[in-house]
Amino acid sequence: MFDAGGADAPGGAGPSPLAGTHILLGERDAETAARFTRTLREHGAGSVHTVGTPEAFRRAGADPPAPVRFWDAAVWHTGLDGDAGSLGRFLEEWRAQHPGIPVVVTDDAPSARLAVTALRGRAADLVERSDPEGLAVAVARAVAERADPLGVEGSGQGSLRMLVVGAHPDDVEIGLGGTIHRRAHSGWDVTVLTMSGGGNGGDPALRRKEAHRAAEVLGARLLMEDLPDGSMADDRTTVEAVERAVAETTPDVVVVHSESDTHQDHRAVHRATLVACRKVARLACYQSPSATVAYRPNRFIELSEVDVEAKLAAIAAHHSQAASRWYLDEDLLRSTARYWGRFSQTRFAEPLELVHERNPLLF
Length: 363
Ligand SMILES: [Zn+2]
Fold this sequence. Notes:
The structure is a single chain. By secondary structure, the chain is an alpha/beta fold. It folds into two domains: 22-147, Response regulator (Rossmann fold, 3-Layer(aba) Sandwich); 150-357, Rossmann fold, CATH 3.40.50.10320. It is 40% helix and 17% strand. It has helices at 30-42, 54-62, 84-97, 112-120, 132-146, 171-184, 204-218, 236-249, 264-276, 305-316, 319-322, 330-344, and strands at 22-26, 47-51, 73-77, 103-107, 125-128, 161-166, 189-194, 221-224, 253-256, 282-285, 299-303, 348-357. The protein has a seven-stranded mixed sheet with strand order 8-7-6-9-10-12-11, with helices on both faces. Strands 2-1-3-4-5 form a five-stranded parallel sheet, with helices on both faces. Helix 1 (30-42) crosses helix 5 (132-146) and helix 3 (84-97) packs parallel to helix 4 (112-120). Mean pLDDT is 86; it is low at 1-13 and 147-157. Zinc ion binds at residues 167-168, 171, 263, 266.
């Protein structure tokens, strides 16, 4: 699931996640519907059922026509039912009625505002309507991420679990916010562990509140420790704090600051986490603003526009920091994700430096 990209391309290795799937396609224009259907079928979809009105979409959603018994994914065109406001209402209603069926939204020219609406409504993705290939890739990804993660060896019972560790409030959002959002919304159980209240950067009570709000935006749970901001050590206290979170969350994957970082707290937390996670299947490092050029990523997690918007919204939740920190500039955050996208051949990505793996199927 954390492939370095390319696996979604037709002719790529392995069976397509769309093999044998049933897709409900909302599309008014017959020619566009035919193009989408052809491309989805080329990617392995078992059947594509097209409807041209919102009413027919809702009806088919609730009651798939035989022989289809359930939908694996749905595709909703914004033009079916008016403006961004109605997209929000549609997504809310769909999620309430069909929480397990991912929806990919198509639009003639997706705006940032529409992406935010799609994000809030937890759409799986937002795709330009002129791009059938992009649609097929988005649907395949939505289906693969929704798929029962029990198929992954060693994941134990239930969802895959990820623990993301940061020294200060906002570290994790900056390094891995998009990935957290992506995984949390595809059924992963994600916990953020923040080692301090960030007292050096402002009022700890306010920062704590902001941290909770940010985790909520991403769909993660937050655990907070109270280590001294600015003078953390890779000693027993820090190791035990991480060990407590590991015992509580039993993660399949842990992600933390890199060793290649100029901030002493980040390095200390990195080292303590290595020790605390010696028995965890996979450990990787995200990129902090204080990472040095020695940070050497070898995995790239592709992100949708919606994931990037969620990351920005989570970072913006840290109101008390937003104005004073150069690295919280939205343009910089967005272009950084855009830059890493070149390595996964997608528009946006976040990098990871994989430190150890005991289960190569996990990312
Ligand atoms: Zn930090």
